[in-house]
TrEMBL record, chains A, B:
It comes from Granulicella pectinivorans. It holds the Pfam family polyprenyl_synt. GO terms for cellular component: cytoplasm. Keywords: Isoprene biosynthesis, Magnesium, Metal-binding, Transferase. This is Farnesyl-diphosphate synthase. Its cofactor is Mg(2+). One of its GO terms (molecular function) is metal ion binding.
Amino acid sequence: MTDTQAVVKNILTTGAILTDEALERLLPGTETQPHSIHRAMRHSTFAGGKRLRPILCMEAARMVAGPHSLGNDIPDGAAALGAALEMLHTYSLIHDDLPALDNDDLRRGQPTCHVAFGEATAILAGDALQTLAFQTIAELPAPPAAVVSILKAVAIAVGTGVGADLPGALAPGMIGGQVMDIESGGKPPTADLVERIHRAKTGALITVSIVAGGLLGSAHAHHDAGASADTIARLRTFGEKAGLAFQIVDDVLDMTQSSEELGKTAGKDTATDKATWPAVYGIEQSKTDAAQLIADAFDALAPFGEAATPLKSLAQYLVDRTH
Amino acid sequence: MTDTQAVVKNILTTGAILTDEALERLLPGTETQPHSIHRAMRHSTFAGGKRLRPILCMEAARMVAGPHSLGNDIPDGAAALGAALEMLHTYSLIHDDLPALDNDDLRRGQPTCHVAFGEATAILAGDALQTLAFQTIAELPAPPAAVVSILKAVAIAVGTGVGADLPGALAPGMIGGQVMDIESGGKPPTADLVERIHRAKTGALITVSIVAGGLLGSAHAHHDAGASADTIARLRTFGEKAGLAFQIVDDVLDMTQSSEELGKTAGKDTATDKATWPAVYGIEQSKTDAAQLIADAFDALAPFGEAATPLKSLAQYLVDRTH
């Protein structure tokens, strides 16, 4: 194992443990009334996700907090913020899997929420995870001004794109991407549409995970009003480029791997004519594009020097993965 | 028309106009991409609701801001906060009407969201209204500490009840109430269950509308850290008592009015054996209980004196209504 591989393995293992501890603390127990919804929320949240968004959030928080960060640990509240982002991701998956949307029975190797708990409970479990995510952010141990900045950025990122033209906003939003994805079904995918859907549907939440982590890290480092505009712009560029690269790699894996290797229904995107990067550019060009996007993402973090190594190693690992 | 009737008519008319102006400003236009979801969000939001929650919010804000409030107008941001609460109410109705839940085709005299736009778009439109509500609260023109207090209180009120045992919280939450309502279907309704469902499903959002309005009004009146604990406790008691009274009156009207008079499918609760107050206590006792709850609600506002008249007149009107 190389040094880089060891760093990444440590980040992924520690990050997943910290995220799961935070989720365990924040999600109501299975014996909390009403039972069915809390069981459904936990079923989907603890179905074996990689915790990519929380880990990116915590690493961005640590990088921005810098030498002020006590013992170079993850800043206070970053695990809770990461858990909130994972709740938002899980809520979007639960609703996306519903019969009226993607109608998927299998997710992360487990029955999807509506298969296990029925459609009504799955709809409400998704709703409640969104609510609990915002509650968790509102309760972060950070100055109120930083909490409000994080709340605004996250809400814009997971919405339809409202306010995304404002300075500091991330355009367009996660739900907007889901709608564009539905509307694109059956039409021949174009390059422009594919990029817009990717940036919205998965890119916005990944990007805001990094930006929100930076805002929290900055607040703990006692900088002025949150992070500087330059820091936020650099984190956003890193998130947008790396997020798009992750999605391209996901789409390539969907076309080249079996369902068993992926833990979800493989070839689904092709089968339903969904707009994906490899469908437009082919598999080889997609791999080249992902590598270039990661190089651009790394450039954005240049001013952070050595402190950016964990985040960069993690991104490199994610585009190099084979399943 | 008596003086009280004139006061109430003015509150309802002005409040609905202010709410609609705020919603018009905050909701993306029907020509904003992606079209389908923004049209669906507007279809349900502008389907003729009474704007009860926003109006209660604005009147509570005005009452608490008191003589500090410039020209005794609605405090700055109260209409936007009211609009956010109406978005949350609308999102819950859209999801509640879905085939997997209540399967209702008619709401406020209009086709429900999934009938007009399809199930996928209706699910995502509800999701996006919840997101936009939290974004709107995060962007309120108020000190960050007050914004965070309002956001926490609202998130707890519309969730499953997580954190509802904390001081300042409202137990249990709106989604929790929807789940209890689903779980109760077909079972003989008991008095305890009916009260718990009412307090959660509709009471929590009504109560937090009044509490959040008070927190905003207090922040504008330059009191110390938001409203005093006594003020919040009194607003909460008023909201809980009056909210339960409104729901009892709603259930009585559902049993005694035609669909045409109500603008929604009448007798639905009886038909599906839903737990309602008149199903347990009968219609006459329900009317007596509603009157007693309103009297208790008024007692809680005694220290506000004359400033409480608009809020009290409004509550009285709502339990006296016949459709």
